[in-house]
Amino acid sequence: MSYALASKKRKFHRVLESLSNNSNAPKPSPPKPIPKDPTVATPKSIDPTIKRVRLTPGSEPDDTVIRPSKSSLPSRSSTTSLRPNFVPWDRDRFLERLETFRRVDRWSPKPEAINEVQWAKRGWSCVDVMRVECVGGCGHSVVVKLPDDIEELEEYDSEKIEERKQVRTALVEEYVKLIVEGHGERCPWRRAGCDDSIHRLLLGKPENALKGLKERYTNLHSLAKKLPCIERIVLPQNMDMNELLKMIPPETFSTSDSESKIAGAEKETPQRTSGESEETPNEGTHKDINKSVLALALFGWDLCGDKRAGLASCNACFRRLGLWMYNPKEDGSSSIYPTLDVVVEHLDYCPWVNAKTQSGSEKQLSQRSPVGSALAGWEVLERVIRNVHRRKTWSADSEAGSAGNNDEISDLGEIDIEARKAKDREWWARLRRVRQALQVKGPKKSKGAA
Fold this sequence. Notes:
Elements: H1 3-24, H2 48-51, H3 72-80, H4 91-99, H5 116-121, E1 125-128, E2 131-133, E3 141-143, H6 158-181, H7 188-191, H8 206-221, E4 233-234, H9 241-247, H10 257-268, H11 275-286, H12 291-298, E5 301-303, E6 311-314, E7 320-322, E8 340-341, H13 355-359, H14 362-368, H15 377-411, H16 413-449
Parallel strand pairs: 4-8
Antiparallel strand pairs: 1-2, 2-3, 5-6, 6-7
GO molecular function: zinc ion binding
GO cellular component, one term: nucleus
Domain C3HC-type: 88-229
């Protein structure tokens, strides 16, 4: 028998054995119904007969593979990483909602009663063009759209101007209601919102205020070459930059650890000298200060994104400044804007320039300052710098006075002791005379009684 014939016989017997085994094997149980959600199915729920399928000679293998849906993976992780939405006391979450209104292609300025601050205080976020939504809460949305500004109409058409004013006023009143009533019936933002002081800058502690100033100055220092000169920066009339510069601690302007150590060493050495010599090292350290960087840092401006972009921003109103617009162009032509006003460039409601926003509500303002003098954020920071400088000056004067009086106190010590002894002798002499007078009258009273 040839080898080819023997191999064919072996294959034929294998086919017969497989057919006989399939006919004698018990019939498999019907497969279990597949659950409606395929993502819930687990390997245990799959019929074991599907795992080990024996191929018959005429059958074809199935290349399909059962895999869990990819959409189920992020859904599970997102549910576990969700943060609570109703946190009206959280200032960081309030600023996150307020930042969604930053894009000019989605939101335009609105009247104060329905501006972005009012919507953010009630849990709304800007999600589309003129559309706000309660993200993470009830999910309701409101389209905020007002007619065009009345200034665009012609002056002689007084009837249309009056009609447009009435329409805008009615819409503003309606949107004021929707800020609260636009939420769902069970939404917690419908019952309460953020406090009026949620937007206030945290400048109460001097160490925090000076730390924030140092961080902003250090960040903006990388844009020193792109900033306009100090002559092009407009400051408030009641602010003296040179005077305030002498009051700021020198370590505030250190842009590296080595510079901070040098400033600290220079700060310690003047304490051993007289009051006149203390001003010399401070003046030396302040000569290298970039006044343009300091001017922006004092009014809340900070570096925005990568320094190569040349952008400065405010972390309270999210206003952005393109610094290239205030510098002359490369071809020698004049800049787009001649000056940079550090106050006007903020939005109207920004606490850095708005005293009402920084103070909170009128009730809280009357409780804090009975006189009623509200201060904006930059004014509060200026007052903190002056108070810190005044305390350091008083402490230095008191230490110098105590050190100078030590010699005088030691010289006058012996004189004070002799004077005290003389007073003591005089007091004891008076006491003896009084006792003698009482002893003379004593026996007469005793005889009369006998």
